[in-house]
Amino acid sequence: MSEAVSQSLDYSQGEPRPHHTYYIPSGDLEFQANNAIFKVHSYFLANHSSVFKDMFALPGENRKSSGPITLHDDYRAWEQLLQVFYPLVPGAAIDPKGDNCDRFVTLTHKYGMNEIESALIQRLITTGTFESLLDAIVAARITESSTTSYENLVTRILQFRRTPSPEQLALTSTLPPRIQASSGAAGAVVANAITYPLDLITTRVQLSRRTSSYPGDVSTTKRIINKALKKDGITGFFSGLESDSLSTMMSSFLYFYLYSFLRTRMLQRKNNGNSTGSKPSMMLSVPEELLIGYISGVTSKSITTPLSVITVRLQSEGHDDEETPGSVEKGTELGHNRIIRVVDRIYSESGLSGFWKGMSTTIVLSTNPAFTMLFLQLFQRLFLKGKDRERPTGAQGFIGGAVSNFLAVLLLYPLILAKTRLQSDSKPGEAKKPNLLSVLGDILSAHGVAGLYQGLSVQLSKAVLNQGVTLMIKQRIEAGIVRMYRQSASA
């Protein structure tokens, strides 16, 4: 206790006397006391609080030489002080273990009663009775020198909170897996509907056997677009949309659910094993990001591959190019009739295994979403700071998703091309069923390395737009859920 403050206390009467540095000589005792409390509190926050130091300014005061009021760490003195300053029931004892503990901890902080304050903080840690995360952070901040580190104390407090607050959700960006999965699936379905014509064109370009269908060449793309318009009109660009939308919804939901679930569990395990007292990590290493992305991708694709095979068949049917393998049936059938016919043909050709044609390539290509999420994490670490990293804007989400998918597709495109050809109809009279290596070998022998990138420009356009829209919508839905949570919590 400082000498100046010691001299301002009248222990014979058990109550404080006004001190000229902090008290305003006007108004009643309660008004003066509240002014003193505010000035002391402001002084502490402006000088020591990492949360509030930029919000408080005390002009005209020499904050370096004037310290806050401190009172003796005696329970009786504190009780007498509160009875003077606050309208308490006469003679009522203040129990540090009572229901109002979270209110009294603020008062102990204001008066610098550190031992009582620490005892109250410990009770709040074990019972989780803080009404807001902000209170918990301030409480942790003011006891970090005498109790434990700021980060550890906040972590311990949050572990005891039964219901996550909106602030927690905003700080950690760890919404429940089902919410992330639902928002991701919704974004993927909308993005798929928007970009589906590009997807259909990409498939037909990839299946074209013309030697001019390589990166930068637009003649094949124009020819395919003109033929589709002439044959079926605008509706022809949405052939197979039903099965593809179902496949996209299922695949995206499973992927985002597994990715969110595995990432949360891995972070928890990583932080639980942290015995150094350092700040809890919200980042995974590159191998860890790739691992959980790959597991999520393989699992989701293994379930939805049959729908992908059906979609490729539907898309290739409408392209009656003499150099393109596949059926040449007209697009006059109703959608569900075409789907039933395609399913029957696949089963007749290869049995149940035909619905998983190209699965070996799919397993390899499951690194695509893994690389996409890895590049997205790297994008956020390199180019986004502060709150934008955890809660990107719509534009930031779109750009991050587009850039990350662009890089992933560029890296894996030869496998994407091979998968499309594997899942299309076999060539007439073909004796041996093709596999990944045979398809890649045929392309290389016929057209060289450039042939491995046939249709790349259209694929990149589709991938960039699709992933950008998906992540933008996903993040907007999640932000809306957080806002709804805040409104319901404050209601």
Automatic annotation (TrEMBL):
GO terms for cellular component: mitochondrial membrane. Residues 27-86 form the BTB domain. One of its GO terms (molecular function) is ADP transmembrane transporter activity. CDD domains: BTB_POZ_ZBTB_KLHL-like (cd18186). The keyword Repeat applies. Belongs to the mitochondrial carrier (TC 2.A.29) family. This is Related to peroxisomal ATP carrier.
